[in-house]
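Sample intake sheet
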Amino acid sequence: MEVALITVGDELLSGDTVNTNANWLAAELSERGVAVARILSIPDDRAEIAARVREYAADFDAVIVTGGIGSTPDDVTMEGVADAFDREMAPTELTLESVERRLAAIRERVPDREFDVDVAAEASVPEGSRPLVTEAGLAPGCVVENAYVMPGIPDELKATFETVADEFAGDRRSRFLYTVEPESNIIPALKEAMDRFDVAVGCYPDREADHNRLKVTATDDDALDDAAAWLLENVDASETPVSRDW
């Protein structure tokens, strides 16, 4: 399974907000054997969102879109996704009930504050989509065709993803090895391992830990194990972190 991630928000592009959502989603998907083929950050621009979602929905098995999905002026993620699939926006019984329930809980928690919320606007999703509601946030997410729309607030994103996590699965597996050999010394071995066993091998220097981390990835368990075993024999490597003693 190949998935693309689109994170929406001017604040991501200006550096005002660190894009932790992309990192968290990529790790979650990778643990499930899914290949994350693209990670793209784009502004709060409805036409841009529509174009990119349309493109990635056609090219990949699924696309996960995170961003503002509420009713403030810059929250145009949901509308952009609706445009990508030529859908109108409308509330459903489920989303209306969810928003009203969440509002009641907020008003009970903060009784001295007035909340002027357009419930129908907050509860609107692309027509024909599958709503994703949680107790973490006010506005619902949704699934429309193969696009999963989720909030940009990290806690709300995580809660929403958990409702559909079982829908993401793949056959990619990885093993990590560690070596103190300089990268230049192990390039031939890494290339040979990739050619011999049809695996991908990444080398990631960790200067703080004073070693190189090798990530071996494959879609076949035997190929993965064989490649790891070959590297352990042909490179000064270990399955546990090591440090230079020089």
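Comment: The domain at 2-167 is CATH 3.40.980.10 (Molybdenum Cofactor Biosythetic Enzyme; Chain A). The chain has nine helices and twelve strands.
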